[in-house]
Specification:
358 residues; mainly alpha; 3 domains; four-stranded antiparallel β-sheet; binds iron/sulfur cluster
Length: 358
């Protein structure tokens, strides 16, 4: 069994779970007993930090009691997340845990890292004598951020299906494996009634924060874009991207090429996207510039209604009378502007002419 301070820093590991199980503490005790007050407040702190900073944060682990409270705060945070019952929040929390995991791993020696990686069933090889690490290419492709140049397969040494990588890079790959794991584990887990009752205030507070963030996202005026005038298809894709939903490639392509046609800069588009819980500025910039021509020198035109319908991206239940008059999301947007300009003109014509009155 690893030392208690290690279990506290890595509460998702097998040894940590065994330790918690062996303590034989019932959920009711953990939730009600004043002995675990500190664990309960750390659990909330983990969630708040994850939501605000995309990192659950660090706390003192100098005493045995610090480690025990830190360790018990983890299952509590998970249970509270299930009661918050919001996929955006769950992903944000999973990211917060995974980011801290990565930061801790980068401070460990390679043997420790190799030991931990085994728990994630990643197929790796470690040549201890030469301190050389490699990972099987399928695991690499599943978890490595290959959209970056440094991570692309062409820039990696591949031998017998294994890809060489540094311990820092292996930590990054493992970060992603933990993020996936937590997100999957919590996605469909029901809320424990007692957790809901005990933490009702905190759950409400966090749900309010999520609502505020969502509202802010809806009302942020960006660049030359008037969100109110967007056609239903683009509005929906944008909302999904901002919520961090899994948007298919064609959806992202339609959105970025549409915004690019409105002359929004790459930075304007990034500002629109950066509300997603797992937002990654570098990745977004790369993907956006591929579509807008910043990387490939080819700037793509946004797809029309027919194509969006073929890809299931036209929300038929939201189609309005302007949709019926137009065949392209850009025409929809332009039409809405025309209506507003006409309305403004009409209004100004109705204003009394002061010169004539005099
Ligand atoms: S009809 Fe065209 S503009 Fe309207 S929602 Fe569908 S795809 Fe978008």
């Amino acid at each position: 069994m690893k030392p208690l301070s290690t279990l506290a820093r890595y509460p998702y590991l097998h040894d940590a779970k065994t330790y918690v199980k062996n303590q034989g503490i019932a959920v009711t005790e953990l939730i009600k007993d004043p002995l675990y007050d500190r664990a309960r407040s750390i659990a909330i702190e983990r969630l708040e930090h994850a939501f605000e900073n995309k990192d659950i944060g660090v706390r003192q682990l100098s005493k045995e009691s610090d480690c025990i409270m830190e360790l018990f705060s983890y299952p509590l945070s998970r249970m509270i997340t299930c009661c918050i019952n919001d996929s955006y929040f769950t992903r944000r929390y999973a990211l917060g845990e995974a980011v801290r995991f990565y930061k801790n791993l980068t401070k460990e020696n390679t043997s420790f890292l190799v030991d931990i990686v085994k728990e994630f069933n990643l197929n790796i090889q470690f040549d201890e004598e030469n301190q050389h690490l490699s990972i099987y290419f399928t695991d690499y492709l599943t978890y490595a951020p290959t959209r970056y140049k440094h991570w692309k397969l062409v820039n990696r040494e591949l031998q017998d299906g294994y890809i060489s990588l540094s311990s820092k890079d292996l930590s990054r790959v493992t970060q992603e494996a933990l993020r996936h794991r937590i997100n999957n584990e919590l996605s469909d887990k029901p809320c424990h009634e007692l957790i809901q009752k005990t933490f009702s205030e905190e759950i409400q507070r966090l749900q309010n924060k999520i609502d505020i963030q969502r509202k802010n996202n809806e009302t942020i005026p960006v660049g030359k874009l008037d969100v109110e005038k967007l056609p239903p298809c683009i509005k929906r894709i944008l909302a999904d991207v901002q919520a961090g939903e899994n948007v298919p490639h064609m959806g992202r392509f339609a959105l970025v090429s549409f915004l690019n046609s409105l002359k929004l800069s790459t930075q304007d588009i990034i500002n629109l996207f950066n509300t997603a819980p797992d937002f990654d500025e570098e990745k977004s910039r790369y993907q956006i510039e591929h579509i807008t021509g910043g990387v490939s020198s080819t700037s793509y035109k946004p797809p029309g209604c027919d194509k969006l319908k073929t890809y299931g991206l036209c929300p038929s239940e939201e189609i309005d009378r302007i949709c019926k008059k137009t065949h392209h999301p850009l025409s929809y947007y332009g039409y809405k502007w025309k209506i507003e300009n006409k309305r403004k003109k009409k209004k100004s014509n109705k204003q009394p002419n002061k010169k004539n009155e005099a």
